[in-house]
UniProtKB/TrEMBL annotation:
GO terms for molecular function: UDP-glucose 6-dehydrogenase activity. This is UDP-glucose 6-dehydrogenase. Its EC number is 1.1.1.22. It comes from the Bacteria. The keyword Oxidoreductase applies. It is an enzyme of class 1 (oxidoreductase). NCBIfam families: NDP-sugDHase (TIGR03026). InterPro entries: 6-PGluconate_DH-like_C_sf, NAD(P)-bd_dom_sf, UDP-Glc/GDP-Man, UDP-Glc/GDP-Man_DH_C, UDP-Glc/GDP-Man_DH_C_sf, UDP-Glc/GDP-Man_DH_dimer, UDP-Glc/GDP-Man_DH_N, UDPglc_DH_bac. It catalyses: UDP-alpha-D-glucose + 2 NAD(+) + H2O = UDP-alpha-D-glucuronate + 2 NADH + 3 H(+). Residues 324-425 form the UDP-glucose/GDP-mannose dehydrogenase C-terminal domain. The keyword Metal-binding does not apply.
């Protein structure tokens, strides 16, 4: 039998660190690499440079097994690996929706120039369609071994907060390959996962790139769909929570990603749909995905409308109003504040003169780095002390479990905006709180009668 391939993972951010650790846990010899010596130092020390439940324990196990090492030396990487996974970031380019491919190109060319024996470069980053084909041409020109160096694409679908589980037990694997040899190498690397019956799709490079952005576009669309329905609820006094519940009982629709509220954020969904639109325009099929512009706009409106709701509850003016902002991360069980709806709301409140105190169980440090002008509290109790309005912006378990009576004893006024539909509204109202949530029927403005609509149309001079 073929000896197990030796694996390298280039880029030890969220995706790469998790992948390297899990591959070592699965029994492979793994070398992780990064250009950032600080990250490498931390990982060698057994410390994960970001918050991810369960990952520190797995890193400890992997290091103890002797199968996982880390380096900043790319000659060593080139020499060591049979299969090289490239897991570097593709951030949104400054001033446009396009993806910045600088890190990806640097990683591929750095390795291609150094690899001197047959090997497979596997891209895992989320990239615009056509990137893998372009990288193939690039590495062919650089590589001293020519076509002995091959390229494949293998998109990653892991969610923050569930990174270990999603990596070891994915819903599916997708291989974008151009040769049987590339496919056989990937099959060898994923043998432990394929062995448990995980579905595999073997595709061309373009399809494998598209799967990732299509999946994220679908998820973003689902969230914006229910949030668009929340807007309609706000105009009619209907209840978006009940609506979501009723819709989700149709199993063609399904219950997941139908949670209304502040909308999506993070390092993937927002930037991926923008980059996809940008790439589709370049490909001449912009019209096919122009709806993603609406998906983005609906999502951004949630932030503005949440601020409107807080202002309304505060009596129409935010100047000097003390707001306790509960949550900063883009979702619970994460310390990631990239494009976080919660922090965006906090920032907008601050710009209107509110005195904002943020508390997040894990993301305070990252939030502080981004917005040093906001106040940060070390606990929920400290954040809500003497608050005029409490705003729940990220649905951490700690906030969902909070006792309305306990909070009532700390605040100046019992006013709460539930930006995530995460609290029991009747529990709060029965304990004397004014509870507000977007798309929740408290706002029950009277639905305009058909006659009214006709009257105003008749009175319209046009
Ligand atoms: C996402 C994809 O789920 C994952 O497959 C892909 O690989 C990377 O992008 P992640 O960014 O970790 O993962 O977050 P996810 O759990 O998908 O949540 C995204 C955002 O949507 C969060 O801000 C969350 O609060 C929001 N969301 C999610 C809703 O507002 N409503 C929902 O019903 C679900």
């Amino acid at each position: 039998p073929m000896p197990a391939p030796r694996i390298t993972v280039v880029g030890t951010g969220y995706l790469g660190a998790t992948h390297a650790i899990c591959m070592a846990i699965m029994g492979f010899e793994v070398l992780g690499a990064d250009i950032d010596p600080n990250k490498i130092e931390l990982l060698r020390d057994g410390r994960v440079p970001f918050f991810e439940p369960g990952l520190p324990e797995k890193l400890g196990q992997a290091l103890a097994s002797g199968r996982l090492r880390f380096t900043t030396d790319f000659d060593e990487v080139a020499h060591f690996g049979d299969v090289h996974f490239l897991c570097v970031g593709t951030p949104q380019a400054a001033g446009s929706g396009a993806a910045d491919l600088g890190y990806v190109e640097a990683a591929f060319t750095t390795l291609a120039a150094r690899i001197a024996r047959r090997a497979l470069l596997v891209g895992k980053s989320t990239v615009p369609i056509g990137t893998a084909a372009r990288l193939t041409r690039m590495i062919r020109e650089i590589s001293p071994i020519g076509s002995e160096l091959e390229l494949a694409w293998n998109p990653e679908f892991l969610r923050e907060g569930f990174a270990v589980q999603d990596t070891l037990h994915p819903d599916r694997l997708v291989f974008g390959v151009e040769s049987e040899w590339a496919e056989s190498q990937l099959r060898a690397v994923y043998a432990p996962i394929l062995g448990t019956g995980t579905p595999l799709i073997v595709a061309d490079l373009a399809t494998s790139e598209l799967v990732k952005v299509a999946a994220n576009s679908f998820l973003a669309t689902k969230i914006s769909f229910i949030n668009a329905m929340a807007e309609v609820c706000e105009a009619t006094g209907a209840d978006v929570s009940l609506l979501a519940q009723a819709l989700s009982l149709d199993d063609r629709i399904g219950r997941r990603f139908l949670q209304p509220g502040l909308g999506f954020g993070g390092g993937c969904l927002p930037k991926d749909i923008r980059a996809f639109r940008h790439r589709a325009e370049e490909l001449g099929v912009g019209q096919a995905v122009s709806f993603l512009g609406e998906v983005d706009a609906i999502n951004n409106r949630r932030r503005v409308r949440t601020v409107d709701l807080i202002r309304e509850l505060a009596g129409g003016n935010l100047a000097g109003v003390r707001v306790a902002a509960l949550g900063a991360a883009f979702k619970p069980n994460s310390d990631d504040v990239r494009d976080a709806p919660a922090l965006d709301v906090a920032r907008l409140l601050y710009l209107e003169g509110a005195v904002v105190t943020v508390y997040d169980p894990e993301a305070n440090a990252n939030a502080h780095r981004l917005y040093p002008d906001l106040n940060y509290a070390g606990s929920m109790a400290e954040a809500v002390a003497q608050a005029d309005v409490v705003a729940l912006l990220t649905e951490w378990e700690e906030f969902r479990q909070a006792d309305p009576d306990y909070l009532a004893g700390l605040v100046r006024q019992r006013l709460i905006v539930d930006g995530r539909h995460a609290l029991d509204a009747s529990d709060y109202t029965s304990k004397g709180w004014e509870y507000r949530a977007l798309g929740h029927p408290y706002q029950a403005r009277t639905v305009p009668l058909l006659e009214d609509a006709r009257d105003s149309a008749a009175g319209d001079p046009a």
